[in-house]
Amino acid sequence: MEFLQPTSWGEALAAKAERPDAVPIAGGTDVMVELNFDARRPAALLDLTTVADLAEWSVDGGRIRLGAGVSYARVISELGDRLPGLAMAARTVGSPQIRNRGTVGGNLGAASPAGDSHPPLLAAGAEVEVASVRGVRTMPAADFYTGVKRNALADDELIAAVLIPQAVGPQQFSKIGTRNAMVIAVASFCVSLNPRERTVGTGIGSAAPTPRRALEAELFLAGALDEAGLWESRADLPGSVVGEFGEKVKAAASPVDDVRGTAAYRRRGLAVMARRTLTWAWTSYQRGG
Ligand SMILES: Cc1cc2nc3c(=O)[nH]c(=O)nc-3n(C[C@H](O)[C@H](O)[C@H](O)COP(=O)(O)OP(=O)(O)OC[C@H]3O[C@@H](n4cnc5c(N)ncnc54)[C@H](O)[C@@H]3O)c2cc1C
Predict the structure, then answer these.
(1) Cα–ligand 1 centroid distance for 232 (angstroms)
(2) What is the pTM for the complete model shown?
(3) Which of 70, 83, 196, 217 is surrounded by the most beta carbons within 10 Å?
């Protein structure tokens, strides 16, 4: 197996153009598992850990430009206030070792429907920036996921960064697993409230072939909050609104039965998580969050 080790982003893109069969490796927490289990035997690995630009984040207008190689540990310690949903999800990833090595870019590269970054990226309205020697393009996260463990990258493209709007209201994430840590999500959910634009964002994980938004639930809740003047009054949410939001999130999923859980359990769990995360987010909004 060849091991390609570019030292700059330009070199990395040139290497990927020349060797489209090369498998990028960032933290390696997915790639090394596949190699160790012989699930994959690529002719070449393209090491991205030596590309310094990828491990940086910066403020880009109202958004955070999160380099693909920024670890979960850094999202938690450096961006918890600006990207609360993603940081909450990051806290649930694996173990300290996995959070030190694993990256959001790697989660996108793997594109598992169970990846924990995806619901907060969807809920926040993030865009994925991908690049090749042909140029740079960005797309909404929702368009990046194209199927089970498939994404929109062309053979010569690499993920450069994720552009994530900074939170202007509360965000909450919840994940069901068979235990508290080191667990792949049976189902997960993130909600984001944007009082400035009076919009609601959602992201569902592990309950469809790809991570996805619950669009009807978003529109329903934003409409209900508007109609009752709740964005201004911050009064208690009617139970009927919370319940209907949960039902609409549940209806947006299309889960399967598998070793981790049944489709029925996932649907039920989503309705519960949607109600709970909304209640937590609203309580925080009422307290000025
Ligand atoms: C013990 C254990 C526990 C785990 N727990 C969780 C968990 O709780 N939640 C969760 O979501 N995941 C979990 N994972 C999976 C894994 O840690 C995550 O998916 C992580 O985000 C992968 O990041 P990485 O940098 O290690 O990716 P890598 O393994 O380096 O790469 C993953 C994929 O992305 C591609 N890739 C990486 N960077 C780029 C790039 N810049 N451009 C294009 N493609 C790229 C690679 O080619 C590969 O296909 C766990 C893994 C282990 C081993």
Answers:
(1) 41
(2) 0.98
(3) 83
